[in-house]
Amino acid sequence: xxxxxxxxxxxxxxxxxxxxxxxxxxxxxxxxxxxxxxxxxxxxxxxxxxxxxxxxxxxxxxxx
Length: 64
Prior knowledge:
By secondary structure, the protein is mainly alpha-helical.
């Protein structure tokens, strides 16, 4: 049986997702004025999203 996630874990996942959306918006804006920097940030965001995915998997108890 699945157990509900504690509120603090849900808030953490919400904050991580919110940060990822903010990062994506910044990269989108930068892509118009500084494509090279936006490419570097896109690579960083890829790593960040992978960390979020692993955190979600760990939080819900699914092996990565």
